[in-house]
Amino acid sequence: MFEAGDIVVCVNDKFEPWVYDLYTQLPKKDEVYHVRDCALGRGNPSFAVNEEAELKMVKAEFAYTVTLEELHNGPDPYSNPEQELGFNAERFRLVQPMEAEEEMAVLVPAVTKPDEFTP
Does residue 53 fall inside a structural domain? Predict the structure, then answer.
């Protein structure tokens, strides 16, 4: 899906309430990011409270996850071996090279040749 170095844009920044307890930095919709790393991780986890009143993950699906150059989070408390908390890759789409060029064209005005200039 993605590779380290790819430029992506966030298309979904709606998170479940528990995410705010685990993550320190979250992506924002329509913001552009650079993929730092890709890995298999967990998605759509389900949690339950045990007899000791501890929140425990009881099940999850495998998901393709990414970490981003611009955002850093702590280790996933439910992974072994520890890995940084990542984001489900489905929250992002690849920015195509033409899109990047078009964005730059908006920022840089067209240059007029001297013989085309009229005061």
Answer: no
